[in-house]
Amino acid sequence: MISVEAALEIILNEIKPLGMERINILSALGRILCEDITAPIDNPPWDNSAMDGYAVKTADTKRASKEKPVLLKVIEDLPAGYTAKKTIKTGEAIRIMTGAPIPKGADAVVMVEDTEKTGGRGLPPQALSGGQGSGVRIFREAKTGDNIRKAGEDFKKGDIVLKKGMNIRPAETGMLAAVGKPNVYVYQKPKVAVLSTGDELVEIEEIPKTGKIINSNSYTLAAQIKECGAIPIQLGIARDTKKDLKEKLYYGLSADCIVSSGGVSVGDFDFVKDVLKELGSDPRLKHAGTGMRFWKVAMKPGKPLAFGIIGGKPAFGLPGNPISSMVAFEQFVRPALLKMSGRTDIFKRPLNALLTKSIKKKTGRMHFVRAVLEEKDGQLYATPQEGQGSGILSSMVKSNCLVILSEDAKDAEKGSTVKVHTVDQSILYQNKPGY
Ligand code: AMP
Ligand code: MG
User: Fold this and answer.
1) Which of 11, 126, 260, 377 has an alpha carbon within 20 to 30 A of 241's alpha carbon?
2) CATH number assigned to the domain with residue range 351-428, chosen from the 4 options 2.130.10.10, 2.40.340.10, 2.60.40.780, 2.40.100.20
3) Pocket test for ligand 1, best of 200, 210, 216, 295 (most atoms within 8 A of CB)
């Protein structure tokens, strides 16, 4: 039996990031960028207005106030998407919309709230000779650069705006669009073959006869695989014979990784580890390293857990009990799949929480205890749930975290601080606005 930490090290030593693929940025959400992205242009490309208002010369607005407005002649209307045809001269303004390029001659924009349109009354006759016939009263002195977004203030031509290894979120998707990249190189998604083993299993559509149970693990595992951003491939059920197991495991070789559940314990029909061993000498699998690495980890639930390499592909033989399988996936398969996907932040961050109930424990195995994590007045509390048996799926449904008690820890007392891993995002959400 090896420790959880040692098992993780053995597994991750075997795992390499997959190759890359070029995909449309609309499909790239949650993927890991495989290239540095350099800006081919400044953004914004030119100085532009941050407000709807009037582009002016600041010198014309000196000492302007509500009581003593300055009257300017409006020589042009400039919507976003167009450039001004005219240059602003002393005593002139251009009506400008947010986003429109700053006209030549202007050095500030006065926002529309600080102005009033006039029909031109009060303007000297020579000012109205251009035929425009309208003016604007300016109620506030403008300073150079007021309400102007400078060219390149977001990023400049040649800047690396996104780095290889970044997770693509909506902001990165927008940035890719902003630099004119419709397609991008990302790491491939791992394809993961899922195999359930056991003579007792029937498919979900069947009504189980006495002694039979529905294969739920294939579905739990598929959902966990999807949650990691990977692609599950269902291999169905293998019966408890070496022949069937071998055959079905071969089916999985076109995937990047194989995950099975059941058949790794010490029962008479637990053949997964034997098969993993035997495949090591199978002449069809010439790949270096084929064979089993370990099959027991000091954890609860999830002790029987085989890991090996088949034809160059990592294979996880998870235990059959539904919670053991889920917990083992979380600890070992998740970081492996994230590493294959090109991520470097592959481990869950532990949070500190106060235990609201004691947990009984002997030393010798790391424990993962289903619990509800809540936050009250800035403090996290973890409440262990009833029904910690490795087959009790309903207590996992009620939980949102696993309390982690280390291998050498004894009973954890009520009120003590423990580490927890969340299993979903529920702690980040609530049923009312959080301001
Ligand atoms: P095993 O590890 O093969 O001895 O399986 C342990 C127990 O886990 C079995 O007795 C079943 O109750 C349960 N089990 C195994 N495989 C599955 C599965 N695919 N779906 C649901 N429960 C399972
Ligand atoms: Mg079994």
Assistant:
1) 11
2) 2.40.340.10
3) 200
Q: Do residues 191 and 255 lie in contact, with contact meaning Cβ atoms separated by under 8 Å?
A: yes
Q: What is the pLDDT along the chain (435 residues), one digit of tens a residue?
A: 999 999 999 999 999 999 999 999 999 999 999 999 999 999 999 999 999 999 999 999 999 999 999 999 999 999 999 999 999 999 999 999 999 999 999 999 999 999 999 875 666 555 544 445 689 999 999 999 999 999 999 999 999 999 999 999 999 999 999 999 999 999 999 999 999 999 999 999 999 999 999 999 999 999 999 999 999 999 999 999 999 999 999 999 999 999 999 999 988 889 999 998 888 788 888 777 888 898 999 999 999 999 999 989 999 999 999 999 999 999 999 999 999 999 999 999 999 999 999 999 999 999 999 999 999 999 999 999 999 999 999 999 999 999 999 999 999 999 999 999 999 999 999 999 999
Q: Retrieve residue 59's tokens.
A: 């010198």
Rounded to the nearest angstrom, the distance between the alpha carbon of 280 and the centre of ligand 1 is 26
Nearest atom, ligand 1, residue 263 CA:
3
- Which stretches within 295-432 are classed as H helix? 322-328, 334-340, 393-398
- Give, using CA atoms, the residue closest to atom 17 of ligand 1: 320
Class of the domain covering 20-43+154-187: alpha beta
Cα–Cα distance measured from residue 151 to residue 293, given in angstroms and rounded to the nearest whole number: 58
Measured in Å, residue 320 CA sits from the centre of ligand 2 at: 6
Measuring CA to CA, how many Å separate 48 from each of 85, 96, 107, 199? 15, 9, 11, 71
Distance from the alpha carbon of residue 217 to the mean position of ligand 2, in angstroms: 12
Q: Which CATH class is domain 48-149?
A: mainly beta
Q: Looking at domain 4-17+189-340, does it have CATH number 3.40.980.10?
A: yes
Cα(145) to ligand 2 centroid in Å equals 73
Output the pTM of the full model. Answer: 0.93
Give nearest CA residue, ligand 1 atom 16: 320
Spatial neighbors of 374 by CB under 8 A, at least 6 apart, are 380, 381, 383, 427
For residues 314 and 292, what is the distance between their CA atoms, to the nearest angstrom? 10
Instruction: Provide the residue ranges of all domains of the chain, joining segments of one domain with +.
Output: 4-17+189-340, 20-43+154-187, 48-149, 351-428
Q: Which of 199, 219, 261, 392 to mutate to test the pocket of ligand 1 (most atoms within 8 A of CB)?
A: 261
Nearest atom within ligand 1 for CA of residue 196: 19
316 in helix, strand or coil?
A: strand
Identify which ligand lies nearest to the alpha carbon of 318. Answer: 1
